């Protein structure tokens, strides 16, 4: 009897010791839980899964700060600062051109300097300088051929410096001419018809190729149409999925 009693205590102590060691090592059995015995580590895995659920929810709901590239403003729109600066410059140039029929030199110079300063602050000074130089060459040729006035021609380098991209500035210029053509076409067709308008355009093309302005040709302030062309280019780039011309 006594030997059985002592041998029973030894087994119970051994089971208790093994169960404690197994529980600490993650391999013990848990005999309570309302539904029978769990497999080894089952309770620990269930606890781990329960702990992972709120952690996963926290990761989904946690708001991360939005990292934007340098030189980008506009809150949720994410509009590049160069385009904001170009729009501001062209709006001032258009207002001045409509009022006094010219774009002042100080405004064009301020636009160039502001664009170069922006390029320097965003780490792209050479791109802004190259765009300004390319637009200056295009503006000089257009002024020499009588296509643009002096103030409008000098506004192109400012536009190129603000955008930091010669292709983007030339796209705005091309769309600006399209806007001007749409504005002048109804007036040109009124009274002279399509044939008369075509004859006049052929004559204007001849003077353009000859490098001289057509005499008697109506002078129209071009800065407002350059602004319209720039806005149209932004619409085109957004429609093409945020196209960036550099």
TrEMBL record:
GO terms for molecular function: aspartic-type endopeptidase activity. Residues 85-182 form the Prepilin type IV endopeptidase peptidase domain. It holds the Pfam family Peptidase_A24. Coiled coil: none annotated. The chain crosses the membrane at residues 77-96, 126-146, 158-185. Keywords: Membrane, Transmembrane, Transmembrane helix. One of its GO terms (cellular component) is membrane. InterPro entries: Prepilin_IV_endopep_pep. It comes from the Bacteria. This is Prepilin peptidase. It comes from Ammonifex thiophilus.
